[in-house]
Amino acid sequence: MPNMGRYCKAYSVKNLREYQGWSEKPGSLRPDESASPRAELSDDNYLFLQENFTVTDGIFLDEYVVFDNVSADWVRFCEESLGFKIPDDLPDPIIITEEAQPSEVTS
After folding, report:
1. 43, 13 contact by CB (below 8 A)
2. String of b and e for 54-76 (b: at least 16 CB within 10 Å)?
3. What is the pTM of this model?
4. Residue 2 counted as domain residue
5. Are 10 and 77 within 8 A, CB to CB?
6. Smallest Cα–Cα separation from 49: which of 98, 73, 85?
7. CA distances from 91 to 5, 7, 57, 87, 101 (A)
8. Higher pLDDT residue, 102 or 13?
């Protein structure tokens, strides 16, 4: 099951490609609406910059990871050039433990 992070923001591929060290993993793209694999991205496509500074082709933190070469330069580019900032008032993640899950209803 894919993991939902606390925060991500969509950016155009054109903007992400401005980073000098940008590289894409085309095999990691989300299939299109007909479930056909996609092999490439165009500048007007959008990807999601995640809270851990990876880039995904969808909202989930660990699914369809297109870019994961996270470095100090990449983080600086995200913050300074893209204006990426995790909001200070973001709530802590809700951690669901086995004990906290609702029990099954039996008749």
Report:
1. yes
2. bbbbeebbeebbbbeeeeeebee
3. 0.81
4. no
5. no
6. 85
7. 12, 10, 24, 9, 20
8. 13
Is residue 107 situated within a structural domain?
no
- How do residues 1-45 score in pLDDT, each as one tens digit? 888 889 999 999 999 999 999 999 878 998 888 877 788 899 999
Cα 53 off chain centre by: 8
Q: Take residue 63 and report the two structure tokens written for it.
A: 């699914």
> What one-character DSSP code corresponds to residue 67?
E
Residue 9 amino acid letter: K
For residue 83, what are the contacts with CB-CB under 8 A and spacing of at least 6?
none
How many distinct structural domains can be found in the chain?
Answer: 1
Domain that holds residue 36: 8-100
